[in-house]
């Protein structure tokens, strides 16, 4: 197929080439008539066409080649595709297989993982079991240990209790021995008691005898004393009787004296009344006397006055004669006096009026003086004015003269000019000169007037000054006149007044200084008092809050003090009660401290412990006594512990109280080895000692031998 | 604030003075040890650290007195405030802190505020309180338990309020007086001084 295709393509290309080649010829032929140009151009165009055809052919061939290649490529592609598809199929099959394998492997893995987990769980559980078992083991171990420890403790307790029992048994034994010894002692004491009772009875009898004798003696003594007392009384009575007799003898005399005294009493009472009356009379008389004396004095005075009045009367009567005023009666005198008084009044009135007129005149004079001065001043002014006006007049006259002279001059000049009025050229110059001259004139005139005004002003000022000076001189003269008039009156007084005024000034200054000092001192004091807090009760008052801290503190203090006092009293009462009762406190004075629970518990424990102790002691005592009595009765020996580790044995059948055997425990406590010590009694038993202790080395045998010996002695004797 | 920023009115001046007394009395109580130091707390006032009591009863008493004093300052009827320190055992007066108050009564008629800067007043108050603290150096020690009282000198015709009563001036027997600084708000002038019992040098 391909080859065929290739051939066809080759044929087709050949055909086309041929067609192409043919075409250019036609085209060449066809194009000849069209152009009438040169052959070169035709050649060129032909060449170009040929080249273009060649190029077309080339391109065709390339195209064909390319298409061939393309077809080959497509074929190869197809083949490759087919192969690839085959490969893809195979690979897909491989894939599937592998996927299946994967799945299987995954399943296996999952199963294995599950197994692993289970195994782990089982492990964990077993671990936990292990742990719990271990814990249980530990706990059991602990319990075992505890039990061991408890067992050990219990063993210890048991051993301790055993020790205690041993000790207690020992104590019991000791106390039993004590009890036996004490019983022996009691018996001995009882015997002594009997003996002594007998003695006592004898003694009591003797004592009673003695007492009876004493009583009798005392009775006799008492009787003696009574008799003596009676004796003394009787002696006193006899003495009294004697006195009484003497006194009785005096009785009648006394009665007489009584009568006399009564009479005197009555007499004296009467005289007393008379005395009082007489005293009143004397007082009345005295007063009268005094009055009379006063009256006498007044009388004397009155007589003197009377004489004086008579003298005066005579003088008055003489006056009338001496003055010759036809006076015979006092009425005339009074008339004269009245007349004189009236004349006096009139004269006084005249005096007053004269004085007032003088004063008015003086006032008028005083008023007039300044008026005079004013008038003088005015006159001087008038004079001045007149002088000024005269001067003015003179000036004016001078001016007039000057003016007339000027006028004349001017007239002369005008005339001269009028006479010389030919030239016209000179007229302006002349006019100018004339004008200048006029101006000069005017200036001069103005200058003159100014000078004159200045002069007039100066003269006026001078005039005013003169007026003032004259006025001042006038015033001075008036003052001098006044001073002269005053000085004529008070020439002497001024010096005195000045000196007195100076003294007053000095005194006042001294007072002022003193007052200033006092003022300063008082101000200092005021300041000081103000600083200290003083105040003026009229203007200020001091207030404070009622519930202020000081008052509150004071209240608290007093309350505290009272509380302390109450407590003190309570404590004192309690003390007294304690001392009185001897240790036991009653309820109302005990300190009310609520006891804490611990203290109560402890107290209860203490009490219970004490009770236990007491009970134990009683029990022990009883037991010991019982034991000792049993020992004594059964063994026949009373065993006492006199000194530590020494035991004294006294036999029931001992002849004397002091016969005793002493044993000392040698060796460790509880071993029981004893040694016999030397006593008086043991010396008497040397044979037995040698036999039983040294040879046989048995103490019980020895003791029993001793009891047998003693028993035999007793029964025999 | 009742005092305007520009000047001092009568009410503002009364408030300033009452405030000064509140802090001053607390300082005196702390410095002289009338109350234990742990009952005081520190506050800031007048640009310095001052002590104020925390005891409720004492606070109540002080507020009562100071509020009444403020009214009287506004009426210009109070002349002096005195802190009297008494020994409890012997009932003797040991110290007197006296503050003289001069009131310008023309401020009552005219309501125009006066020109004085609050800073200047506070500066003056600060120096007074500092001086009070410094006086502790020369005052004799108060060794016994003491209590204090506040006395107020007023005009005679003033009506005594309910919880107040008249009392004596509680002067010291033999006293030494020392004048301290003063300050003025241009309406009220407060002069301070302390008088203490002369100790017989052994």
UniProtKB/TrEMBL annotation, chain A:
The keyword Electron transport does not apply. It comes from Cirrhinus molitorella (mud carp). Residues 40-319, 372-399, 434-461, 491-626 form a coiled coil. It comes from the Eukaryota. One of its GO terms (biological process) is attachment of mitotic spindle microtubules to kinetochore. Component of the spindle-assembly checkpoint that prevents the onset of anaphase until all chromosomes are properly aligned at the metaphase plate. Forms a heterotetrameric complex with the closed conformation form of MAD2L1 (C-MAD2) at unattached kinetochores during prometaphase, recruits an open conformation of MAD2L1 (O-MAD2) and promotes the conversion of O-MAD2 to C-MAD2, which ensures mitotic checkpoint signaling. Its main location: nucleus. Belongs to the MAD1 family. PANTHER family: MITOTIC SPINDLE ASSEMBLY CHECKPOINT PROTEIN MAD1, MITOTIC SPINDLE ASSEMBLY CHECKPOINT PROTEIN MAD1 MITOTIC ARREST DEFICIENT-LIKE PROTEIN 1. GO terms for cellular component: centrosome; kinetochore; MAD1 complex; mitotic spindle; mitotic spindle assembly checkpoint MAD1-MAD2 complex; nuclear envelope; spindle pole. This is Mitotic spindle assembly checkpoint protein MAD1. Pfam families: MAD (PF05557). Gene3D superfamilies: 1.20.5.170, 3.30.457.60, 6.10.250.90. Keywords: Acetylation, Cell cycle, Cell division, Centromere, Chromosome, Coiled coil, Cytoplasm, Cytoskeleton, Isopeptide bond, Kinetochore, Mitosis, Nucleus, Phosphoprotein, Ubl conjugation. It is found in: Chromosome, Centromere, Kinetochore; Cytoplasm, Cytoskeleton, Microtubule organizing center, Centrosome; Cytoplasm, Cytoskeleton, Spindle pole; Nucleus envelope.
TrEMBL record, chain B:
Pfam families: HORMA. It comes from the Eukaryota. GO terms for biological process: cell division; mitotic spindle assembly checkpoint signaling. Keywords: Cell cycle, Cell division, Mitosis, Nucleus. It is found in: Nucleus. Coiled coil: none annotated. GO terms for cellular component: kinetochore; mitotic spindle assembly checkpoint MAD1-MAD2 complex; nucleoplasm. Belongs to the MAD2 family. This is Mitotic spindle assembly checkpoint protein MAD2A. The lineage of its organism: Eukaryota, Metazoa, Chordata, Craniata, Vertebrata.
């Amino acid at each position: 197929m391909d080859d065929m295709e290739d051939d066809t393509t080759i044929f087709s290309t050949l055909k086309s080439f041929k067609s192409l080649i043919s075409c250019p010829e036609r085209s060449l032929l066809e194009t000849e008539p069209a152009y009438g140009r040169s052959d070169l151009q035709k050649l060129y165009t032909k060449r170009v066409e040929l080249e273009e055809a060649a190029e077309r052919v080339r391109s065709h061939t390339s195209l064909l080649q390319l298409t061939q290649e393309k077809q080959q490529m497509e074929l190869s592609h197809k083949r490759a595709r087919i192969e690839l598809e085959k490969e893809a199929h195979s690979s897909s099959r491989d894939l599937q297989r592998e996927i299946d394998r994967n799945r299987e492997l995954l399943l296996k893995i999952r199963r294995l993982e599950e197994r692993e987990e289970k195994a782990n769980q089982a492990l964990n559980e077993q671990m936990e079991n292990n742990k719990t078992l271990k814990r249980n083991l530990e706990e059991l171990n602990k319990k075992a240990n505890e039990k061991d420890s408890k067992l050990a403790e219990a063993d210890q307790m048991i051993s301790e209790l055993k020790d205690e029992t041993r000790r207690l048994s020992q104590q019991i034994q000791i106390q039993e021995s004590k009890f036996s010894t004490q019983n022996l002692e009691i018996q001995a004491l009882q015997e002594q008691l009997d003996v002594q009772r007998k003695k006592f009875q004898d003694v009591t009898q003797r004592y009673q005898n003695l007492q009876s004798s004493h009583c009798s003696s005392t009775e006799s003594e008492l009787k003696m004393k009574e008799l003596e007392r009676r004796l003394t009384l009787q002696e006193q009575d006899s003495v009294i009787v004697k006195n009484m007799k003497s006194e009785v003898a005096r009785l009648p005399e006394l009665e007489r004296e009584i009568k006399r005294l009564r009479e005197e009493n009555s007499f004296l009472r009467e005289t007393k009344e008379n005395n009082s009356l007489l005293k009143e009379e004397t007082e009345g008389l005295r007063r009268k006397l005094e009055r009379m004396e006063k009256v006498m004095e007044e009388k004397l005075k009155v007589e003197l006055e009377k004489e004086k009045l008579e003298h005066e009367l005579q003088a008055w009567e003489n006056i009338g004669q001496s003055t010759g005023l036809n006076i015979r009666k006092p009425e005339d005198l009074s008339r004269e006096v009245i007349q004189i008084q009236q004349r006096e009044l009139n004269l006084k009135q005249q005096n007053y009026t004269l004085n007032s007129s003088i004063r008015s005149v003086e006032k008028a004079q005083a008023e007039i003086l300044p008026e005079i001065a004013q008038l003088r001043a005015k006159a001087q002014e008038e004079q001045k004015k007149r002088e000024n006006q005269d001067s003015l007049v003179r000036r004016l006259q001078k001016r007039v003269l000057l003016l007339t002279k000027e006028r004349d001059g001017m007239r002369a000049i005008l005339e001269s000019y009028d006479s010389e009025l030919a030239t016209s050229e000179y007229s302006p110059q002349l006019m100018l000169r004339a004008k200048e001259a006029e101006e000069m004139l005017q200036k001069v005139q103005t200058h003159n007037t100014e000078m004159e005004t200045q002069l007039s002003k100066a003269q006026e000022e001078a005039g005013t000054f003169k007026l003032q000076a004259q006025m001042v001189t006038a015033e001075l003269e008036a003052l001098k006149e006044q001073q002269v008039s005053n000085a004529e009156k008070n020439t002497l007084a001024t010096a005195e007044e000045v000196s007195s005024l100076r003294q007053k000034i000095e005194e006042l200054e001294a007072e002022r200084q003193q007052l200033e000092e006092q003022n300063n001192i008082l101000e200092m004091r005021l300041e000081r008092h103000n600083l200290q807090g003083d105040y003026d009760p009229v203007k200020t008052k001091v207030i404070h809050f009622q519930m202020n801290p000081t008052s509150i503190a004071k209240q608290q203090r007093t309350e505290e003090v009272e509380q302390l006092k109450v407590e003190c009293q309570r404590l004192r009462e309690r003390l007294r009660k304690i001392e009185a009762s001897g240790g036991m406190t009653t309820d109302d004075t005990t300190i009310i401290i609520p006891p804490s629970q611990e203290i109560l518990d402890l107290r209860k424990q203490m009490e219970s412990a004490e009770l236990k102790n007491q009970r134990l002691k009683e029990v022990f005592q009883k037991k010991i006594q019982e034991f000792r009595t049993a020992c004594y009765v059964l063994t026949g020996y009373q065993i006492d512990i006199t000194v530590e580790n020494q035991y004294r044995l006294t036999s029931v059948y001992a002849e004397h109280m002091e016969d005793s055997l002493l044993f000392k425990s040698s060796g460790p406590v509880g071993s029981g080895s004893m040694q016999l010590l030397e006593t008086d009694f043991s010396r008497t038993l040397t044979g037995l000692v040698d036999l039983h202790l040294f040879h046989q080395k048995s103490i019980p045998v020895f003791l029993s031998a001793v009891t047998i010996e003693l028993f035999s002695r007793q029964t025999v004797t | 604030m009742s005092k305007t920023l520009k000047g001092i009115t009568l009410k503002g001046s009364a408030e300033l003075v009452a405030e000064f007394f509140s802090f001053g009395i607390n300082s005196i109580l702390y410095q002289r040890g009338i109350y234990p130091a742990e009952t005081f707390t520190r506050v800031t006032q007048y640009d310095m650290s001052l002590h104020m009591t925390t005891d409720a009863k004492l606070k109540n008493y002080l507020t009562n007195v100071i509020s009444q004093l403020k009214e009287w300052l506004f009426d210009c009827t109070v002349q002096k405030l005195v802190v009297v320190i008494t020994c409890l055992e012997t009932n003797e007066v040991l110290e007197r802190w006296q503050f003289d108050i001069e009131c310008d009564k023309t401020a009552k008629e005219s309501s125009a505020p006066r020109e004085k800067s609050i800073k200047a007043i506070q500066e003056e108050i600060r120096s007074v309180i500092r001086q009070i603290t410094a006086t502790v150096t020369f005052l004799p020690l108060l060794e016994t338990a003491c209590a204090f009282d506040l006395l107020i000198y007023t005009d005679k015709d003033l009506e005594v309020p309910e919880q107040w009563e008249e009392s004596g001036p509680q002067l010291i027997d033999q006293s030494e007086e020392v004048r301290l600084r003063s300050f003025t708000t241009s309406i009220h002038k407060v002069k301070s001084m302390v008088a203490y019992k002369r100790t017989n040098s052994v």
